[in-house]
Amino acid sequence: MKEPLLAFTEKGIYCAAADVYLDPWKPVAKALITHGHSDHSRWGHGQYITHHRNVPIIRHRLGDIQVQGVEWGESLLIRGVRFQFFPAGHIVGSSQIRVEYQGEVWVFSGDYKTENDGLCTPYEVVKCHTFITECTFGLPVFRWRPQEEVMTDINRWWAENKAEGKTSVLFGYSLGKAQRLLHLLDTEIGTIYTHGAIENMNEVLRPLIELAPTERITADTAKEAVRGNLVLAPPSAHGSTWLRKWGPFETASASGWMAFRGARRRRAIDRGFVLSDHCDWSQLLKSITATGAEKVICTHGYSELFARYLNSKGWDARTVETQYEGESLEATSTEAQ
After folding, report:
1. Contact (Cβ atoms closer than 8 angstroms) between residue 109 and residue 87
2. What's phi and psi for 95, nearest 5 deg?
3. Is 82 a residue whose pLDDT tops 50?
4. What pLDDT shows up at residue 275?
5. In this structure, what is the dihedral angle of CA atoms 133, 130, 296, 138, given to the nearest 10 degrees?
6. What is the mean pLDDT of the chain?
7. What is d(CA 314, CA 281) in angstroms, rounded to the nearest whole number?
8. Residue 74 has pLDDT above 90, yes or no
9. Which one of 3.40.50.10310, 3.30.360.10, 3.20.10.10, 3.60.15.10 gives the CATH number of domain 7-141+278-319?
10. Domain 147-273 class?
11. Quick one: pLDDT at residue 135?
């Protein structure tokens, strides 16, 4: 029986013909990396290959590593196997990896979204025979409103809080969500203050993308200076002593999980805005259809339910276990998304 072009092993997704791994979760000699989130780009590999915009991100997160940057669509031949990186639209520098060998084509999507956020390179459909897809929000209940509508709500919330003399605290992951929010927040309302973890990532990304001006919060930042403005903080800051200093305030989270009834109450926040860096149900189905893939491998998220639906519609779909996390329902210190 012919071995699959990509196999799921205890170390990660393995291409035996090229002897390389894609987003491995255990240390390997050579790793092709889709993007900079910690569940996809881990420390300890001998060599990293990724899109050049992701190079400064993973160097910031992983330290002194051996890394090679490539351009979109650039062909990389390893032992006769052709690898190419194409935009995933998830965060800055995020990629899908196309793998071609002896006429067979697989695409590993990593994490992706098809809505153009105006900040990262938009998602590009890549034709293939087998498509490996995430299923973070692979349920029909997840249906995103257009980004412009959600941001109108967020900016209105900030303006209303400012009029009442309250600070607006908005939670978003330090890599990806925070920069997307910065790109879309209305700076005419007031000043945007940032938690150190977010500002550190902003400093890495400012040479690559245009971001709104921000003020880093330090030990010397006065409470009265912040009042009425907006504080952008990672989810791990929720409930911290750092946060309590900035009261009176209202809190909000920008996440796809806010579509779940009770998610806001579970997180003990005042407002929830449905804004995700992943596909919703219909976007997943449209993107999979557009690839022309006959076989679909479903990974992290609602993979079992999503694969069952795909099989009912004529795809050859199955699930595999990985160590990818997607967008975490809980606010964690790892800031994986």
Report:
1. no
2. -135, 155
3. yes
4. 97
5. 20
6. 94
7. 17
8. yes
9. 3.60.15.10
10. alpha beta
11. 96
**Tens digit of pLDDT for each residue in 119-175?**
999 999 999 999 999 999 999 999 999 999 999 999 999 999 999 999 999 999 999
Nearest to 330 by CA among 219, 217, 239: 239
